Amino acid sequence: MDLKDIYLLATLVACFWLDPAIAQELVYSIKEELPENALIGNIPKDLNISHINAATGTSANLVYKLVAKAGDNTLVRVSSSTGELFTTANRIDRERLCAGPSYEENECSFEIEVVILPNDFFRLIKIKILVKDTNDNAPMFPYPVINISIPENTVIDSRFSIPSATDPDVGVNGVQHYELVNGQSAFGLDIVETPEGEKWPQLIVQKELDREQKDTYVMKIKVEDGGSPKKSSTAILQVTVSDVNDNRPQFKDNQIEVIIPENAPVGTSVVQLQATDADIGTNAEIRYIYSTQVSPATKRLFALDGNTGLITVQRPLDREETAIHKVTVLASDGMPSPARATVTINVTDVNDNPPNIDLRYIISPINGTVFLSEKDPINTKIALITVSDKDIDVNGKVICFIEKDVPFHLKAVYDNQYLLETSSLLDYEGTKEYSFKIVASDSGKPSLNQTALVRVKLEDENDNPPIFSQPVIELSVLENNVRGLYLTTISATDEDSGKNAEIVYQLGPNASFFDLDRKTGVLTASRVFDREEQERFLFTVTARDNGTPPLQSQAAVIVTVQDENDNSPKFTHNHFQFFVSENLPKYSTVGVITVTDSDAGENAAVTLSILNDNDNFILDPYTGVIKSNVSFDREQQSSYTFDVKAMDGGRPPRSSAAKVTINVIDVNDNSPVVIYPPSNTSFKLVPLSAIPGSVVAEVFAVDVDTGMNAELKYTIVSGNNKGLFRIDPVTGNITLEEKPTSVDVGLHRLVVNISDLGYPKSLHTLVLVFLYVNDTVGNGTYIYDLIRRTMETPLDKTIGDNSETYQNGDYLTIMIAILAGAMVVIVVIFVTVLVRCRHASRFKAAQRNKQGAEWMSPNQENKQNKKKKRKKRKSPKNSLLNFVTIEESKPDDPVHEPINGTISLPAELEEQGIGRFDWSTAPTTTFKPNSPDLARHYKSASPQSAFHLKADTPVSVKKHHVIQELPLDNTFVGGCDTLSKRSSTSSDHFSASECSSQGGFKTKGPLHTRQGTLTRARTELNPEYLDLRSRAELNSEYWTPCTPLVSTDGQVF
In sequence order, what DSSP letters do the residues of 6-35 get, joined into one string? Predict the structure, then answer.
């Protein structure tokens, strides 16, 4: 491998990178005259181009394409799939390809461009192919017969030039050797190599010549190249021996270089050659001629005056064809050895050539028009543009640009090559076709330019979905319509064309009540609308084009069904039942009528009215609120019934009716009424022979209320300190606990509390039961007198032990002792009151309807006497009585449960009542749970208890408790202070109601028995007073005025 081969190999491997991502360069070297389909090179292998997609790891289908001008006979071809470069049927002839003189072997070459597609892998490969010479031409002499004249006086070893042979091949394939054939020993041949590498043959005179002996020598000269195999040719060399002329011409300058512009007109002098000859006469006459080495083209361009040596322009010059002309001029005086001078003519550039635009399409045009899809991405390659200018320097500097604003641009790849690309996304709907010029302009003065027309048409893609004229379509239609009713026409437009703009319509879900024509978009009703079932329909309509793939869009359709008066008002219940408490104030709300109308607007505007009521109730025609126009009293009327009419505002109006019942709920507004004993002065004989457990007396009362308000409970609250008697809380039967002894003989006064289990406040009544323990009654008048005298004793005092003092007035000593003991007791009570806290006791009683016939009533005469005595003593109407709270020990016995509360409401009765009745089941409002309207709660207006029911809590201290003066034969009725407010502070059934006055007895612990250990009695003075009101409702024959109560110290209350 010689140095030239190493150079070519290095050139092949080297690449010049202008843009590594786009442009690369390869150089291949081939021999001329290669056969068809000879492999030149492998582009991907030589550039190390991978066919594997680095991102996905899959094989990329690269396409290699030769960029050639239409109509060109390409010398090479490229395989589109492998990228291999091959020769074609067009023969590569170096001498034809590179016509003209060549002095270096690598001067002949041609260039091609290859692009790699698709666009994502785009590369532009510029390939330079060097054509190496092959020995396909034999060297030739310019003439078949060469005539040389040699003077006869030529000295030996003189040299005479022989016209050189020429060979289109270069290098070793060019002229390498000359050989003289049949030199006849008079002549020899020598080869002189010029600095330019030319080999000039010279004929050497080897012996003296004598024209007279021989004036002509005929020989052959052979020329041979260095190729393999070698090629040669011959010419006849004829030497004529002439007369002697021993001085040859001499040029003043052997090397002359001149500059002439290429636009020099014909006849312009180029250079004046001048040679001189020392001879005279005809031997001094010099003739200027071109050397045989001067090409015919140069001879045509420049004229040489043979006499003067003036070289002139005889034809227009073109620097672009030949920039340098080398001319060899011979000056001969007739001698065979002329003088030589070399003239180098440099033709300077003039801006006489416009730029050339070479437009080679990457996307093959159809009839000169490139078709692009509007979905092609930005930087889609359209064509490779090569601009050139035959001029040089400034005149050959070309700029390239697009004439107007289009979505295309030129991207420079090399200095003179550009890629025509898309610069933005294309839109068929905006512009369907582009026609623009590419301008190439040089920098000469004046500037010359060239244009190339490019036509681009866009192909429509389905890139626009159908667009509705309204994104939300709102319609209204009356209910009860006919089927197939026209509603509206839905329309959409598509900016695409052809099938891409053909639209079909389709209903979305929830549109079963509608039909839609797929082509026209006409929307109709497929069913009959009922606004009451569905007032609004919301569905979608889809518009889809016929593109590939199809595009679609949606619009929302809202259909509102308008109301017709086709529904009558409807009550929530056919029969409304409301429950209200009696004593509810007039104009109170008792209930709400609820009515609905499925229609809307005026058709649903309902007005209510009462049909058949005697103005007992007031009905709001719009809200349905029922208010009372009467005061309720359950004992007078327990329910009210009437009809209600509802009428809407439609045209014509519709109406309906419902029944309403108002049920009056009982309120605990009646205290128990005592039936037995018939009066407070009645007594019952208890013989000493009575056995324990026997019934010795009965207490019976009734309550005109109902339910729990009428259930009674009986309790002994005073007068049974010895525990001799026991009362049944339910039946009211008083029985003996122990057999009476002589100690028990005398009059016993029992204070019995009768309380109901009413809500929200229990009411009670007190009754006095007198039991006379003795074998016989004896003097009845005396007993009645004792009873009247005991009425003056406070109710918290036990009169059983001192009854004998009333029987015998002679027992003064006993009396004094009793008085002294009473004083001691009073002192003890006073001290105890200061220490102990004050509590109120409350009682409840159970109801029992029972008759008793064993009570003894005083005669009318005694009653009249009582009234007279009472008048004489002028007792106040409201007697004041001090009550004390008593705590005693009782046996652990259910009958003797501890009581806690006021005298008007014993606590143990309330507890027993709660044990038998669950207040949690009681309604929290005046309505039953099944009432049709539970939204409203009404407070009961029934009288509220004035006694506080808080157990074991000290009561607030008040200075007085009012007690109404009652007749002896009347019962005691406990309640709140008449001056207190009768209002409930809470609707909770389990909350206590505050009372304006409190007081009474309070008993804690078991009562003592005669056999058991007596606990220390604790008394507490209660400064409040008990309001004992008479019951006017009871039969007046049972009740007579009562003697005022008198304390032990004789004070009248």
Answer: HHHHHHHH----SBTTTEEEEEEEEETTPP
Q: How far apart, in whole angstroms, are the C-alpha atoms of residue 647 and residue 568?
A: 8
Which stretches of 466-589 are DSSP H helices? none
Amino acid at 719: G
The whole-angstrom distance between residue 414's C-alpha and the CA centroid of its chain comes to: 52
d(CA 1040, CA 1050): 23
8-state DSSP, 841: B
More confident residue, 707 or 439: 439
Residue 537 has pLDDT above 50, yes or no: yes
**Would you tell me the crossing angle of helices 860-873 and 780-790 to the nearest 10 degrees?**
30
Q: In one letter, which amino acid is 908?
A: E
| Joined tokens for residue 33 | 């005259």
- Summarised one tens digit per residue, pLDDT across range 493-511 is 998 888 898 999 999 999 9
pLDDT band at 812 (very low <50, low <70, confident <90, very high): low
Radius of gyration of the chain (CA): 74
CA distance 231 to 139: 7
CA distance 26 to 24: 7
Sheet of 339-348, strand order: 255-261, 339-348, 324-332, 287-290
User: Closest by alpha carbon to 126, among 28, 49, 48?
Assistant: 28
| Cβ density class 49-78: b for 16+ within 10 Å, e for less | beeeeeeeeeeeebebebbbeeeeeebbbb
Q: Encode pLDDT of 63-115 as tens digits.
A: 999 888 777 788 899 998 899 999 999 888 888 888 765 545 557 888 899 99
Q: State how far the Cα of 437 lies from the Cα of 420, in Å rounded to an integer.
A: 12
What are the C-alpha distances in Å from 551 to residues 217, 284, 539, 750? 99, 100, 20, 105
Q: State the first-to-last Cα distance of the chain, in angstroms, to the nearest integer.
A: 159
- CA 802/CA 895 separation, integer angstroms: 26
Q: How many CB atoms lie within 10 A of CB 542?
A: 16
- DSSP bridge partners of 660: 576, 642
Instruction: Provide mean pLDDT across the span 769-783.
Output: 85
What pLDDT is stored for residue 461 in this prediction? Answer: 87
- Per DSSP, the three-state class of 116 is strand
Pairing of strands 381-388, 408-414: unpaired
Given a cut of 50, whether residue 294 has pLDDT beyond it is yes
| 630-664 pLDDT, tens digit each | 888 888 888 999 999 999 999 899 999 999 999 99
Give the integer Cα–Cα distance in Å for 580 and 668.
Answer: 14
Q: Is the pTM of this model over 0.90?
A: no
pLDDT at 102: 53
- pLDDT of residue 327 exceeding 90, the answer is yes
Residue 47 CB-density burial (10 A; 0-12 exposed, 13-18 middle, 19+ buried) = middle
Q: Are 1033 and 850 in contact, with CB atoms under 8 Å apart? A: no
**pLDDT of 1012:** 34
Report d(CA 176, CA 24) in Å as an integer: 40
Which three-class secondary structure state does DSSP give residue 162? coil
Q: Are 729 and 694 in contact (CB under 8 A)?
A: no
Check residue 642 and give its pLDDT: 93
Q: Which helix (H) or strand (E) holds 202?
A: strand 199-205
pLDDT of residue 316 exceeding 60, the answer is yes
Q: What are 161-174's pLDDT values in tens digits?
A: 888 888 888 888 88
Cα 466 vs. chain centroid, distance in angstroms?
27
Distance between CA atoms of residues 412 and 432, nearest Å? 27
Token couple for 30: 């081939």
Give which of 900, 901, 1032 is closest to 973, Cα–Cα.
Answer: 1032
Q: Which residues lie closer than 8 Å to 837 by C-beta, 6 or more apart?
A: 954, 1020
- Residue 173 falls in which region: left (phi positive, over 0), alpha (psi -120 to 50) or beta: alpha
Distance between CA atoms of residues 423 and 433, nearest Å: 15
Find tokens 């006379």 and name the residue: 772
Looking at residue 281, its pLDDT comes to 73
